[in-house]
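Lab meeting, action items carried over

1. Structure of the two-component assembly. Owner: GW. Status: complete.
Input record:
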Amino acid sequence: MTRIVVLGAGIAGHTASAFLRKWLNKKHEVVVVSPSRYYQWIPSNIWVGAGKMSVDQVRFDVARRYERWGIVFYQALCLSVHPEGNEKTEKGFVTIEYTEEGKKGEKREIWYDFLINATGPKLNFEATQGLGPEHFTASVCSYNHAEDAWNKLQRCFEKMKSGQKQTFIVGTGHALATCQGAGFEYILNIDHEIRQRGLRHMAEIKWISNEYELGDFGMGGAFIKKGGYITSTKIFTESFFIERDIAWIKRAGVYKVEQNKIYYENLLGEFHEEYFDFAMLIPAFSGHGIKAFDKQNKDITPSLFAPNNLMKVDADYTVKPYEAWSINDWPSTYQSPAYPNIFAPGIAFAPPHAISKPMKSKNGTDIFPAPPRTGMPSGVMGKIVAQNIAEWIKTGKPTLKHTASMGKMGAACIISAGYGWFNGNSATMTVSPIVPDWEKYPLWGRSLSNTLGEPGLAGHWLKVFMHYLFLHKAKGYPFWYLLPE
Amino acid sequence: MDTIKRGYVQEHYAPMPTKTTRFWRNFVPWQMVRFVILNLRILKIVVKGHS
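Predicted assembly:
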């Protein structure tokens, strides 16, 4: 019997465990460890935060489903990895701590033959003083945060109805945060909801971001064919804002939040403050701080994890200047170079460097977006890791012939900008590849035929369609495995 | 009366969609066509992304 332990039941982890269970004989065991018993379709959290969907529409109880599928599930956190075992066993194992009621705080060890670390990001609110739902800002990074954001928004709507003007600020809450796309989507939804209530004259809406230019989205922006020109996503994004009378602050590294006040430094080295009544700021991401120990119980965390606690994989981590970056720096199999039976797909892997050009303020503060790796790429990575492990187990040979490099695969990002079959709106964006390939596409970095940006109602329909399609897949409904990631 | 002189503010350099552009973005028959085209274009990327 071979045991595969999957840490995390998000997009990458759930995809990997579902495919492993499908492809492997029942004599092999698939084990999932996740601190929550729910799977959430993260892209739809925006609609929870805008009051268009309930929490139960974007999540489902994955533990019950795993039981039916024959996957062993532990509702727990992973504390440490012991890839060489210990004095009692040669097999690698993980130490977990239960989070489920009744067993909370209890610890146990689970041995493995293969380990998939797909824990996703830790929402590192602590990296910015005063940031997060427990302090002064909202978040839409999880369904419960999004629900809280919607409650806060409704209170602002009530104040506007009673004649009090409100200031809304949305964007990045750290100088190195990513996921600008989620912030962009949320600010457009806030604008839509306020307009629907006839209150737009009572609201000031602002975007704040660590991007050098709008439309960077942590991937260095993109170039698209539009209106007879090849134009930047900066123009595309700014157009959305000007159409909706949304102001913007760019090149800003938020370093502190207080009640109704955001403090930031910009690339010019200036320090500014912004007043707000409602703010939704995306935090920095990091790994979960899992420790690693060798057979003698010596701490070997730095050999498995990068300083930001994300796992090192088959990337080229040599420090290079921006000009020397290449798509070949990016991983393709997500295998740990230290221990070949460990993999880290999705946000859990440490990227070799950013995609956006690193920028420093005059005071030496790094202010630029980290690379995004959510949604579609995470699903694809989870699947190829499962394919490679399944084939390794069946043939006994580690061929790792399935690859998914962000320097080769494309991604689609559909940004809803209002909800409704006839009055909805969206910005549909695709890029291919995700990491610009300046050798293959020396002029624009990406394929112009596969990179697009299109506003319109059709994208909104597409986003709704994908919500149901991907939940259908995640729930393992008929023919789920035929649907792409 | 306040007048707006365009320019010299970052927001004034962004392209503002015209009424006609906005009409096509929400014109259901045209958006149905775009829906099919967008699906096909995304499918192409998805298929290419799987090795």
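2. GW to write a short summary for the group page. Key points so far: Residues 3-123+285-395 of chain A form a domain with the FAD/NAD(P)-binding domain fold (CATH 3.50.50.100). The longest helix of chain A spans residues 376-395.
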